[in-house]
């Protein structure tokens, strides 16, 4: 593939992947203003974040079979149109309940881009290059936590929180145009893929029964759930406990996210010497230690604004290594039903993320303990899943063997 064509392709796929993160991050600085305007609390407003996660979890399971049956572009364009309509609705929301419902529907459109982009990476690139491509996508995806909260903070301060959703509407309209004109169809429609409930469920069961998928999808999902706990809890921790302004919060979020971007790019260089499984294990151990340290510091009262930023930055740096390798290892065994596998991967990730986010909101007690405790629990659980799953994968490799391309991604266990 020519360099210019590859750059354009990865750029469009990255933009599709960034719709979800932008939708999550951009309105976070506006939580206090939204709560004031809609006559509710920040904790209630944060439920709109949880409803978004739930919508993405359900929506991805719907889009997966559609992407396998009708090709990638048609369902993708329908989803983006749905996103544009519901984003405009969010800008006009007159109550917290309306915002929560509209965010749920907005998520259905958002997840089309997330599922399609992962499936198209599997379609268009050799399996032993997918981890590098996911790292490149992280460069685009990672820009959203830098730009989105900062831009959201300035937009909210200057024009009110409604302007955030106006900008999202315009942004995705431009992405839809890029998809239509520049993104190739990577998979022809397959009429043999059934959309009936039983065959669809059987297809998803076959995906889940693959030990490699199960291990690395849950490893990545649990680690990412720690990130979502941070996203959900950080407005309260930074702006209310540590008295950071909306603009300062946006910059803090950006600085922390910069570490995630940098590490995702370092991951591309490490893949020249090390295999994905080796990298993800070291990163998981480091993240578990960091998460536990953060929680202990919160318990004993040692956390302050600067200390929190430093420790959380290290925590998310580890995520820069975990996400691309977990995604690549999860999807490696699949070809014909890559759309369904991508959907299941995203659904697992977002459903656990929704639980994590909702738990932080439910346990809110005017301290940093809910956020830091959930972050620690998620990343330690991720390491445990990885450790147990490796034993299962090793047994399958020894007893059944695996495809040569997939084997190249996995180190000697």
TrEMBL record:
Annotated ranges, domain Major facilitator superfamily (MFS) profile: 6-393
Entry keyword annotation includes Transmembrane: yes
Membrane topology of the entry: Multi-pass membrane protein
InterPro entries per UniProt: Efflux_drug-R_Bcr/CmlA (IPR004812), MFS (IPR011701), MFS_dom (IPR020846), MFS_trans_sf (IPR036259)
CDD domains: MFS_MdfA_MDR_like
Domain of life per record: Bacteria
Residues annotated as transmembrane: 7-28, 40-63, 75-94, 100-121, 133-155, 161-183, 213-231, 251-270, 282-303, 309-331, 343-363, 369-389
Subcellular location, record wording: Cell membrane
GO biological process, one term: xenobiotic detoxification by transmembrane export across the plasma membrane
One GO molecular-function entry: xenobiotic transmembrane transporter activity
Keyword entries, A-Z: Cell membrane, Membrane, Transmembrane, Transmembrane helix, Transport
Entries under Pfam families matching the protein: MFS_1
Gene Ontology CC, one term: plasma membrane
This protein's record includes keyword Isomerase: no
Family stated for the protein in its record: Belongs to the major facilitator superfamily. Bcr/CmlA family.
Cited NCBIfam families: efflux_Bcr_CflA
PANTHER family for this protein: MAJOR FACILITATOR SUPERFAMILY, POLYAMINE TRANSPORTER 2-RELATED
Protein name stated in the entry: Multidrug effflux MFS transporter
Source organism of the structure: Panacibacter microcysteis
């Amino acid at each position: 593939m020519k360099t210019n064509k590859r750059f354009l392709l990865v750029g469009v796929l990255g933009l599709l992947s960034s719709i979800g993160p932008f939708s999550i991050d951009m309105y976070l600085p506006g939580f206090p203003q939204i709560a004031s305007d809609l006559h509710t609390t920040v904790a209630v407003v944060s439920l709109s974040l949880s409803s978004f996660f739930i919508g993405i979890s359900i929506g991805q399971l719907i889009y997966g079979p559609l992407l396998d049956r009708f090709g990638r572009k048609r369902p993708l364009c329908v989803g983006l149109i749905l996103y544009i309509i519901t984003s405009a609705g969010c800008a006009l929301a007159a109550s917290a309940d309306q915002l929560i419902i509209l965010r749920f529907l907005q998520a259905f459109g958002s997840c089309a881009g997330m599922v399609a982009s992962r499936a198209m990476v599997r379609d268009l690139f050799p399996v032993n290059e997918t981890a590098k491509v996911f790292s490149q996508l992280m460069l685009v995806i990672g820009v959203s936590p830098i730009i989105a909260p900062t831009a959201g903070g300035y937009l909210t301060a200057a024009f009110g929180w409604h302007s955030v959703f106006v900008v999202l509407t315009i942004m995705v309209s431009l992405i839809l145009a890029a998809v239509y004109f520049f993104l190739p169809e990577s998979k022809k429609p397959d009429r043999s893929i059934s959309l009936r409930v039983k065959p669809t469920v059987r297809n998803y069961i076959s995906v889940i029964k693959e030990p490699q998928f199960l291990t690395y999808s849950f490893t990545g999902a649990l680690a990412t759930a720690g990130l979502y706990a941070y996203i959900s809890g950080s407005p309260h921790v930074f702006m209310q406990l540590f008295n950071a302004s909306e603009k300062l919060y946006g910059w803090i979020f950006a600085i922390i996210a910069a570490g995630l971007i940098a590490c995702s790019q370092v991951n591309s260089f490490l893949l020249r010497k090390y295999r994905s499984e080796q990298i993800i294990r070291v990163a998981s151990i480091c993240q578990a230690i960091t998460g536990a340290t953060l929680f202990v510091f919160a318990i004993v009262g040692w956390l302050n604004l600067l200390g929190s930023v430093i420790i959380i930055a290290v925590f998310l740096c580890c995520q820069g290594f975990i996400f691309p390798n977990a995604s690549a290892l999860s999807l490696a065994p699949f070809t014909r039903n890559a759309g369904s596998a991508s959907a299941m991967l995203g659904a697992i990730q977002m459903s656990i993320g929704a639980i994590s986010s909702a738990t932080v909101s439910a346990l809110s007690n005017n301290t940093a303990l809910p956020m830091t405790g959930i972050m620690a629990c998620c990343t330690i659980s991720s390491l445990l899943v990885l450790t147990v799953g490796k034993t299962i994968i090793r047994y399958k490799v020894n007893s059944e063997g695996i495809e040569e391309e997939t084997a190249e991604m996995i180190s000697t266990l």
